């Protein structure tokens, strides 16, 4: 079974419970679970992830290629490709429950979702989730293809996907208000998933510090013309498509394309001995890789009813990425917020889940 197929099967399980999701990934990455033990007369209420360690032998039949080399245990690249991509199922479920909560909770003469700040939170969380989806899907595809570029793209994607998952979960926790920490039925799933996603990096050793694994190939990746590589933002056909079908995204795309060109030069001449600067460069490359993955997904799905093919969603994701590049996150414009909230409501109503691939969801608010 491929990594993509394993992730596809595990995402709904992550949506129910993170431990169930890890069980679903066990044939691919293996695991050892240690049951939590409560003190005598006490009760343990803790993160579902706290009892998991990724140090079991690799499952038989796991194939290796130039980009992924297996050893006596699950290869770090396999874990880094599979776990963040599958964990999106937990964030997806938390987002759906948050929409239901925000529609049901009455406040100030309306519902929570009528409040502009709440709508902005939901829009930002969904944009970040869709960015993580595009990025992790691209990394999984490269890993399954055993592409040499996977040795760089997978750790970059694991690094940023985990940050995006945690940040989107934080947005969801604010949206849920006191319901988040009070575990109020029937929305206690929100708190469970937000907490477990925040713990993901700390609990899975391969996800704790993946950037160093990408450093040796950073310059080559920045010069790659693969659709998921930063240089693809500079393709004339990409610029023409955005100008024609997503004019609102032209400005932010041009800014990100310029950043990709500048970053490629920096990657070709790294600052010797300055590890902090090199890691900061790798982080920037991960952001530009995410932008390329979002645009590639849009190019593939445009004209369809898929969320990935919506030019306003693509623009919102690029704006959020640009905010991270310049370390200043302005609020999304009102039209983008309205479109993202409409998508979130449509997906919550349909119960549709994220799926691996460029056309990842088909619920349409229009």
Automatic annotation (TrEMBL):
Gene3D superfamilies: Butyryl-CoA Dehydrogenase, subunit A, domain 3. Residues 79-195 form the Acyl-CoA dehydrogenase/oxidase C-terminal domain. It holds the Pfam family Acyl-CoA_dh_1. Keywords: Flavoprotein. This is Acyl-CoA dehydrogenase/oxidase C-terminal domain-containing protein. The lineage of its organism: Bacteria, Bacillati, Actinomycetota, Actinomycetes, Micrococcales.
